[in-house]
Amino acid sequence: MKTIVIGSGVSGLTAAALLARDGHQVTICEQFGQIGGVTATLWEEGFGWDLGPLMLEGIGPGEPAGEVLAEAGVARRIRLERGERGICFPDFRILPPASYGGPYWRREYLKELFPAEKEGLDRYYRFYDQMMDLVALSNHAERAAGLRAFLLKARLWLAFLRVMQMKNWNAARVMDHFFRDPRLKAIYTVILADFVVPPSLFPGLLVPLVNPETAFDKRIPTRLSPSVTGARPAFHYVIGGCGKLVEALADVVRQHGGDIRTGTRVQKIMVEDGRVTGVRFEDGRCEPAGLVIASGGAHETFFGLVGRDHLPGDFAARVADVPFMESVLMVHVGIDFDPTPYQPLPLCYYYNTYDVEGGIERCRRGEYHEGKDGFLIYIPSLHSPEMAPPGHHAVTVYTIAPNHLSEGTWTQRRDEMADKLLAEAGKVIPGLGERAQVKVILTPHDFRVRTLQEHHSFGGVAPVLGRSGAPHRTPIRGLWFVGAQSESNAGVANSIVGAWRAVRMIRKEGWM
Predict the structure, then answer these.
(1) Helices (H) and strands (E) in the chain, counts
(2) Residue 512 reports pLDDT greater than 60
(3) How far apart are CA 97 and CA 151, in angstroms?
């Protein structure tokens, strides 16, 4: 089967690797000059920086994305290290303690900070355990078969009954249910800024899932209860940068006869009588294919490459309703000093506001906070020394940013905004901007060029209550859609697993 994959992000590469191993004749077409999409690693003057995935969930051995990588023959080609993150607010910070305090040390620490909230914290963590067990069961059940699958799904349903009353609650309502202090509520909702989704729109049941305790201490085991089938989420860094994962997937494609073309822009997905027939490139050349896997922007794929005239009305409406995140401003620097006296962990989030709802809404309106509301600092050379010259460190500072500024453009204000962000980060790591030997700036405009999206959605589909991404299976026979704007939802691990799900459906339907 001749198969064309549009886009070389992690989802396109995963689908291509799986299909190439199945015997498909695979060609990947990437419009940018580098493969990997936003999962690539950028190198300059001996420094390496990831473009954003940072600490990845679910890619370890036995985890959902890890299982897919193993099936694709990639897991053994990359090295992983458990990771953890810290969060810092104006009046307190939450970092892993020097002495391990057990899997619920954060709960006990927060009881000390907020003594009036002890009862609410105990109730929240019972809810947290229920959701973590639910996820563990769900992940395990997806790959099970026969009687075991039936039994696991029955247990899954019983577990869901415990939290069913909250299924339509937003995050703000869930926080109000457990806590009173707005600062405590912010601890669990401020991560929603990563998605640029306010608590009033974010699904409440997902709050524990974006705040897993394993993300804050790598010593916490992923299996806490022998009675629960499956492990809780864990987080890993890819040693040497996420580009190593990209390279490993690309190697599998090539080793099985696949072709990867960069600088090759698809202008049209050709459709006849409701069936895909191939693609037409920007230079006018056409290439036939019986199967096309498209990744990247949902609107760009279906309304641009396919065309509304080939789409049923209900499908077009669903694509039009896909909710998007905003973009980011990212500044990479190479420094010649040790940053660990100021930040001991590779990854820390710094928040200067407890007004999560207001800060996110302002960003969605195009108002950029210039780093004053918050940012994160990531130092990949702490876990991967090869990402900087000896005695040096690679540092990334980034924060959410609107696709378009309310005043001026990103092209016009590129250096100004980068300097302002570095100035805020310099309050944490003094000299970060002044002693930068190398500086690379990526604005929302740069990401739009890299991803070929009119509206750059950094993580993909925004997790908004009652809405979802575009389906993997399309109304056009032979055309499938994968990636962070598909129904698999945002993030690297979800994109990997979503690509596997699409390939599983392709296999079941006999596309061989």
Answers:
(1) 14, 20
(2) no
(3) 40
